[in-house]
Amino acid sequence: MSRYGYSSLESASTVTSNQNISLGPLDRDIAFPSNAQDTISAIRWSPTANHLAAASWDGKVYIYDASTPTNIRGVAMISTSANTPFLDCDFSKDGTQVAAGGADANLHVLDAASGATAIFSGHTKPIKAVRFVNISAASGAPIAVTGSWDNTIRYWDLRVPTAAITINCGERVYGMDTNDGGERTLVAATADKKLHVIDLRKPDSGAWDVKEARESPLNYQTKAVAVSRDGTRYAVGSIEGRASVQSVVEGDTRTRNLTWKCHRDKPEPIQGGNRTQQQTKCFAINAAAFLPTSHAILATGGSDGTFQFWNVDTHTRTKMFPNVGGSVTSIGFSYDGQYFAYAIGYDWAQGYLGNVHEHPRKLMLHAVAKAEIGGK
């Protein structure tokens, strides 16, 4: 057991990493057009079609039609006047809008039909996370939620120019996600190692406030947050190469909480004084994503240059993939789970000195085989 009281993958009674499992193939993966001039910070699939949005440090969001994988086309783009970096993006639930936020502290929303982009201002520092949510109390209006380094979460009714609700989280928002399956759960991770769990089904006097601020089960800064499609569980990943899956409802016996080590090199012996010690290199988990068709399958991507698939119900790693040549900065499954996209770039883990021109910048498409997610 970990010191937080959760089962740990290091424990023999919980999860096995399947060390003998063969590495998944990448030779048939397809590259998206190389439009981005800098690292892609975030990718998001449309919930209705094989369209992908990719936010980049070059100040643009690229939108691709991947309906025909052998002929991926760029179909639209969002840009800022000052080319300030975009840090996150998301599709609306009907796939007709794309929202993006970043260093200019504004929310940018592209309407696919008209091609027009609306800008919403209110945050005072960069927007780190953007998600569309369904809320019945909003009378069917599209609601975008933003999490910022100004310590707030804001809800935006896109029919009006100012934020409808502002929630003070007390610290910077480092990651946020909600379930795609309907109105239920939103989880935001903040710099003070808190996880803010919001129940979207129970607006309090018309406001969607924080239901609970929990202590993270991880020791260090959270970088990745993912919520399962049914909204019953969430996953978080940290800079220490450790992940955790937790139940939204504490004490729910249907979901077993797990915390485990991953995205780490094998221990190497080093000489320390008169004895040999073991040293393990730990890499940040930059991204996490649940398979839309299953709340049990989770993918993680890290600074070690790999992405891995896990079954959190059977407590096994179902597939590990070879090193892709650079840090995996963002990942995501398509709406039907047939495809998996991953971005390769520089994640600033080595500071500005590590941001060399030769660092690879790619966006790739991987066809998901049933065997890779534990199927036959």
Automatic annotation (TrEMBL):
Gene3D superfamilies: YVTN repeat-like/Quinoprotein amine dehydrogenase. WD repeats lie at residues 33-74, 120-166, 285-320. Signal peptide: none annotated. It comes from the Eukaryota. This is WD40-repeat-containing domain protein. PANTHER family: MRNA EXPORT FACTOR AND BUB3. InterPro entries: WD40/YVTN_repeat-like_dom_sf (IPR015943), WD40_PAC1 (IPR020472), WD40_repeat_dom_sf (IPR036322), WD40_rpt (IPR001680). Keywords: Repeat, WD repeat.
